[in-house]
Each structure stands twice: as structure tokens, then as C-alpha cells.
Charged multivesicular body protein 4b
Amino acid sequence: MNREVVSSMKTASEAMKTANKGVGVDDINKLMDDIQEQREIAEELTNAISAPSSGSSELDDDELMAELQQLEQQDKVPQAAEPSLQLPEPVRDPLPADGAKKKKKQKDDEDLEKLQAWLA
């Protein structure tokens, strides 16, 4: 069992040597310095972007406000004239009598009988 443990440790040691070949502490330190430098540059850029511009900010705000007011004036819809509340007079003609409905029903029944006779 000890032999297997020692063999595994030897294999792990050789794997670590292979993985670390060509990479030294100086290389890692240089890499970390480069990363830190890039972080600082990114932070400076973020600060520059988020900082208010000097002096021209008020002028730009005034120009933007004037443009906004102009656009709002263009968007205003002229008010339509008041709608007329005069409605047409209702039709006062009498409704058709039930007789007209009965005649229509009779005609439909006759047509149906003719159709049934023709099919028979």
C-alpha cells in the first residue's frame, strides 16, 4: 500500500512540474501587475465617463429643455370642435304587422313542401 501512495505522489509531482514548466514566480508577478494596471485604467475611464462635464452642462441642459418644449408644442393636437348633440328624430312609422310575418312563413312552408315533393 505504501508503494502505491509513493507512486501516486511521484506521478502528482511530475504532473505539477509539467504544469509549472515555463511559468515562474516572476511571470506570475508580472501578470498580476498587468492585471492591476488594467483595473486602474478601467476605473479611471469609469470615473471620467460618470463625472459631470464642466461649464457646458447648464448650456446643454438649457438647449435640451428648449428642444423638448418645441417638440411638445409640435405634438399638441388642436382641440376639435364640440360635437353636436343634436340627434335625428326617431322613425315613427308603425312596425310591420304580424300578418307580413305569417305570409312569409306560409311562403317558406310552401317552398319547403315543393322541395320535399321534388326530392321524393
In short: The mean pLDDT is 84.
